[in-house]
């Protein structure tokens, strides 16, 4: 196994390029794809798992929530942990843990066993996600190569959720819901062997873990994600919703106060106060909120109203994945170096808004080619442009010892946005559906009327997603600086990030 240190510095003082850097990229992308898949891979398998393990409809939400809670709540902690104790070690531990949890989940013989396995998956996903992005940011030093690497990684990050629907549908229909868990073992084996062989031990930050900050941040994020999850399935007025949301908000306010006074804070304020990085984090938050309009409700529409099977509805998302990859690579390699993040992120959000607005034209007899193909391709292109710029920008101009926590901020924005999106859009859909039935039906509704009511809920969600993306475009455009990222945006040169930031307007 390889235990060597990172490549030695060259004559200029910059780290020499790792000759195996493209293989390292493949290992990183494999691991992160596994994490992204599990956000949705179980969604289409839930009915089969419910029938097999005999749990109630009310318990179904916990198969998804058990993964999301620790994932969203522990990202900042594990991001900093990777800086302090080593990214290779964090990466390998995360891969092993995720594989073991997946094996246990696949073999689950009870609801409790499956939920526990999903929660453990979420813990190790929170360990893996920031380590992956930090390893990417510190492995590539040449600007052109870094653009290509981030383009590839962005395509994986943006399309993993949709790919999870495809794989989940195929495995559930072709094999068993248990293979939605077992499939992770193949990804984990490849990532672990590659990581052991290729990854270098990197220099570690000399700071200590900020335990008060960990407690405040973890408690705050856990409470927010839990509160939004309850809102999605119960009601905004229940104490388990507003109580946890209020608690989460209060803890995060205390966290923001604490990090300005702590000697070695969990999240150094300089990470989020930079306009470019802050704009990238906000953009990912809006994307996470709005994208569930297409990832969740479009799948509902295809299955419940158009009669698509799990595999057909999953495959129908393929154009979105392809255009996401195209947008991420073109944006990351060609456009970002020349124009900077502001036009890419703003345009990407507006393109997503246009795609969601196009989806509002659906009806009970809509055809895939006429009503769904175009909008999903448009949304995919927009997502690719956003992620190509946001992932690179979110880790730009940070010192090597802060790469893990900066990467965690990107993932935290996406996870928190997803929790908000599911809760908000579920509520909007339910309200619109109920309102349509009250206005148009007297007595017991027919099947056709129920379908029309559901479509009213979907189109209302699509309009809200349109607005979310559009507002995100405006806010991100105001936050992000014009022009390309500075030439000093090379995390591994050893130049202190504060020097480059202080010289900027």
Properties at a glance:
Growth Hormone, Chain: A, disordered N terminus, 76% helix, 505 residues, 2 domains, mainly alpha, 19 helices
Main beta sheet strand tally, sense and closure: none
CATH topology of the largest domain: Growth Hormone, Chain: A
How far apart are the termini? 46 Å
Number of DSSP strands?
A: 0
How many DSSP helices?
19
Low-confidence stretches: 1-14, 489-505
* Fraction of residues in β-strands: under 5%
Question: Roughly how much helix do the residues carry, as a percent range?
Answer: over 70%
Identify the CATH homologous superfamily of the largest domain: MFS general substrate transporter like domains
Shape descriptor reads: globular
Under the CATH scheme, the architecture of the largest domain is Up-down Bundle
Name of the CATH first level of the largest domain: Mainly Alpha
Mean pLDDT comes to 82
Taking all Cα atoms into account, the compactness measure Rg is 22 Å
Structural class: mainly alpha
Order of helices and strands, N to C? HHHHHHHHHHHHHHHHHHH
Number of domains: 2
């Amino acid at each position: 196994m390889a235990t060597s240190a990172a490549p030695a510095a060259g004559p200029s003082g910059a780290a020499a390029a790792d000759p195996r850097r493209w293989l390292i990229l493949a290992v990183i992308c494999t691991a992160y794809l596994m994490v992204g898949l599990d956000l949705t891979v179980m969604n289409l398998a839930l009915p089969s798992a419910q029938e097999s393990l005999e749990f109630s409809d009310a318990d179904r939400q916990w198969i998804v929530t058990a993964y999301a809670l620790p994932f969203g709540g522990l990202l900042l902690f594990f991001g900093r942990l990777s800086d302090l104790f080593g990214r290779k070690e964090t990466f390998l531990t995360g891969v092993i843990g995720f594989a073991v949890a997946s094996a246990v989940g696949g073999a689950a013989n009870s609801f409790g066993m499956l939920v526990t396995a999903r929660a453990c998956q979420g813990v190790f996903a929170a360990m893996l996600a920031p380590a992956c992005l930090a390893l990417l940011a510190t492995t590539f030093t040449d600007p052109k190569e870094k653009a290509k690497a981030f383009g590839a990684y962005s395509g994986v990050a943006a399309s993993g959720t949709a790919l999870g629907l495809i794989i989940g549908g195929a495995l559930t229909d072709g094999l068993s819901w248990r293979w939605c868990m077992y499939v992770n073992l193949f990804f984990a084996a490849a990532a672990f062997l590659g990581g052991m062989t290729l990854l270098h031990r990197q220099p570690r930050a000399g700071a200590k873990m900020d335990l008060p900050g960990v407690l405040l941040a973890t408690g705050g994020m856990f409470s927010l994600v839990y509160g939004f999850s309850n809102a999605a399935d119960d009601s905004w007025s229940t104490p388990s919703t507003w109580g946890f949301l209020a608690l989460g908000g209060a803890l995060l306010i205390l966290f923001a106060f604490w990090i300005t006074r702590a000697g070695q804070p969990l999240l150094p304020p300089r990470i989020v106060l930079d306009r470019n990085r802050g704009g990238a984090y906000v953009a990912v938050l809006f994307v996470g909120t709005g994208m569930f309009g297409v990832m969740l409700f479009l799948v509902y529409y295809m299955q419940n109203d158009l009669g698509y099977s799990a595999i057909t509805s999953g495959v129908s998302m393929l154009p979105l994945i392809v255009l996401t990859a195209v947008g991420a690579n073109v944006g990351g390699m060609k456009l970002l170096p020349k124009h900077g993040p502001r036009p890419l992120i703003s345009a990407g959000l507006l393109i997503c808004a246009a795609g969601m607005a196009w989806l509002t034209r659906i009806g009970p007899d809509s055809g895939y080619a006429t009503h769904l193909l175009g909008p999903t391709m448009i949304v995919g292109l927009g997502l690719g442009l956003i992620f190509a710029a946001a992932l690179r920008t979110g880790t730009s101009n940070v010192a090597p010892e802060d790469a893990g926590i900066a990467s965690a901020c990107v993932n935290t924005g996406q996870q928190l946005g997803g929790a908000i999106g599911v809760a908000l859009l579920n509520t909007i859909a339910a309200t619109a559906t109920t309102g349509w039935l009250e206005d148009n039906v007297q007595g017991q509704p027919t099947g056709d009327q129920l379908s029309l009511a559901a479509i009213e809920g979907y189109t209302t969600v699509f309009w809200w997603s349109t607005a979310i993306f559009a507002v995100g475009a405006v806010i991100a455009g105001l936050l992000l600086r014009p022009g390309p990222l500075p030439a000093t945006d090379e995390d591994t040169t050893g130049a202190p990030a504060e020097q480059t930031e202080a010289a900027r307007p």
